[in-house]
Write a structure and sequence with these properties.
127 residues; alpha+beta; four-stranded antiparallel β-sheet; three-stranded antiparallel β-sheet; 45% helix
């Protein structure tokens, strides 16, 4: 029986959003300082409204298609290869990849994203 993998944490997603906000503000203020552009609060608000909206739509889409059956993990009902990797800041994560005829599906799962039971099962399956 297939079981949907539930994602429980969005912590690193908020980190990505805050880094993007800081980068956007730094670039915008530097352009303003050198006279290349004017800072506009309306532009900032519009950009981040759309950015956060699209970002969380992507997260919802990602969460819908990850399932587990008999110890195998599936993305869009295609068996996934699991690899344990480290990010730039040495954070461990599991990268799930499912090959299709025209490309692949890939999802990164961090330890706090899923339950301890699901994380342990993924770690056992990693190559």
């Amino acid at each position: 029986m297939k079981r949907k993998i539930e994602f429980i944490s969005q912590r690193h997603h908020w980190t990505n959003i805050s880094v993007t906000l800081f980068t956007y503000l730094a670039i915008n203020f530097s352009f303003n300082y050198f006279g290349l552009a004017e800072f506009s609060f309306q532009t900032l608000l519009t950009f981040f409204t759309f950015y956060i909206g699209f970002y969380f739509l992507f997260i919802i889409k990602r969460e819908r298609y990850l399932t587990e059956k008999d110890g195998d993990f599936f993305i869009h009902d295609i068996v996934s290869d699991l690899q344990l990797k480290k990010s730039l800041f040495k954070t461990r994560y599991v990268e799930l990849t499912s090959q299709t005829k025209s490309g692949y599906y890939r999802i990164k799962v961090y330890p706090g994203d899923v339950s301890e039971q699901d994380w342990t099962a993924m770690m056992k399956k990693c190559t």
